[in-house]
Amino acid sequence: MLNVDELSRDIDEAEKEMYDMLRNSYLSIYNGVMAVAHFYLLFISILRVALAGQGAMLTNYAAMGWLLKSAQQTAFLEIIHSATGLVKAPLLPTIMQVLGRAVVLFAVVDGEVQLQSSVACYILMVSWSAIEVIRYPFYIVSLYEWFFPRLTWARYNAWIPLYPIGITCEALLTYWCIGLVRETRRLTVSLPNMFNFSFDFTLYLKLHLLLIALGGGYLMKCMVGHRAKGLKKLSKQQGLVEVLKRENELVKIRQKKESKKVK
């Protein structure tokens, strides 16, 4: 006789398995594409300077900015991932990081040619990509619970120099942009107008400069917490690996002794 409860349970399990498969496949593709994009951006940016000298820093945005902008536009999906529970990433830090980078990239750097040809812009591109080259592969590894201790170590340590470098470059570019916008009045809406609305982009940039400092501190504080938990988990995993290695060695020693007794 057909058990309704068991049938319902089997259907629920099948649906969960299907959801997990589709979720993991989608996130693997997303993280993989983003990892490849940032690796290519980082590799070409460094290669251009290695081959053409420091002058290539000043033209790097003109050559590779299209890829950085495409990747940053795609990164808006991460807000949806967090908001819908597709990933466990906290929503507020995700919004702060994605929107903060978008403002600096599209409103600050992309709107001012002078900033695009600065060393700070080059360092910003490299530092952002260097972080993502580690972050996205780490997400794939975590998704399937694979054990890659070096990647885990890099994930929880590489941000220590790279985050401050990136935040400093964001602040410098925003500060320089304030002076440029004050002259050109770019993106500024003045009264009177048909909508009776005004917007001072210079004032907004000053506010955003403050947000970079506060938000950067908050994100690094979050990373300190993640680092402590992540390295603690890594230490336990490495301890288990050592225990398994020793057990395997003991098994091999016993097998050798038994084989000698048989002979």
What is the count of DSSP helices, taking H or I runs of 4+ residues? 9
Order of helices and strands: HHHHHHHHH
Main β sheet profile: none
**Helix percentage:** over 70%
What would the average pLDDT be, to the nearest integer?
Answer: 89
Number of strands: 0
Strand content: under 5%
What is the terminal separation in angstroms? 59 Å
Shape field: globular
Q: Determine the structural class based on helices, strands and strand pairing.
A: mainly alpha
- Uncertain segments are none
Rg calc: 25 Å
How would you describe this structure to a colleague?
- There is one protein chain.
- 81% of the residues lie in helices and 0% in strands.
- Helix 7 runs antiparallel to helix 9.
- It has helices spanning 4-52, 60-74, 77-83, 91-109, 113-116, 119-143, 149-155, 159-184, 201-262.
- It is built from 9 helices and no strands.
- It is globular, with a radius of gyration of 25 Å.
- The protein starts with a helix and ends with a helix.
- With 263 residues, it is mainly alpha-helical.
